[in-house]
Amino acid sequence: MPPRENGQDQPVIRDNRKIDPETGQVRDVSAAEQPPAAAAANGELEAQLAERTADLQRLQAEYVNYRRRVERDRAAVREQAVAGALADLLPVLDDIGRARDHGELTGGFAKVAESLESALTKLGLSSFGQKGEPFDPTVHEALMHSYSPDVTEPTAIEVLQPGYRLGDRVLRPARVAVAEPGDATPASNDDDEN
């Protein structure tokens, strides 16, 4: 018989159990005590574990990005729906404003108009465009133009129809009469003198 690896004729017994049968505790098996085949298998398992962990992290990041995108799209669709409904109600608000200006909005109709205006304000609708504001072509629509020595810059001298916005979005520009600095009289033409 050939000699054993311990140099004796007795067999070498290795206990590869993970739990010690005498104490019931989990054994700490270091790489030095493991046979080379087990160490290679552990290295391969660790590589697979790292790969699977990276895959799960990538999937989780994709899912989080998907949820954010869906929430952003829902908010955009809601804002578009509210803007569409409010845009359809702007002529009604114009009629209420004209009735108020002429003193025809009294009694129960005044209460209904106030309720409607407060409900629309809660949805985020706000009006803009006042007499004396500097003219801004991004939020004003000039329907009339004149010159006036009383202004120093292009100014809205009269608001023909108020503008409305929802948050930062302009639903309708304010329609105004604009005056620019200069003489109120038209310039003379030299051809008329001949």
Can you walk through the features of this model?
The chain is of the alpha+beta class and 194 residues long. Helix content is 42%, strand content 19%. A hairpin with a 2-residue loop joins strand 4 and strand 5 (169-172). Helix 1 packs antiparallel against helix 2. Mean pLDDT is 84; it is low at 187-194.
Extract low-pLDDT stretches: 187-194
Helix content: 40-55%
Q: Give the termini separation.
A: 140 Å
Task: State the secondary-structure class.
Answer: alpha+beta
Beta-strand segment tally:
6
Query: How does the overall form come out from the CA principal axes?
Result: rod-shaped
What fraction of residues sit in β-strands? 15-25%
Helix count, DSSP H or I runs of 4 or more residues: 2
Sequence of secondary-structure elements = HHEEEEEE
Q: Strand arrangement, largest sheet?
A: 1-4-5
How is the biggest beta sheet arranged? 3 strands, antiparallel
- Radius of gyration (Å): 41 Å
Arithmetic mean pLDDT: 84
Task: Summarize the entry for a quick read.
This protein is of the alpha+beta class and 194 residues long. Helix content is 42%, strand content 19%.
Question: What is the secondary structure topology, with strand pairs?
Answer:
Blueprint: H1 36-101, H2 108-122, E1 125-128, E2 140-148, E3 155-161, E4 163-166, E5 169-172, E6 174-181
Parallel strand pairs: 2-6
Antiparallel strand pairs: 1-4, 3-6, 4-5
Helix pairs in contact: 1-2
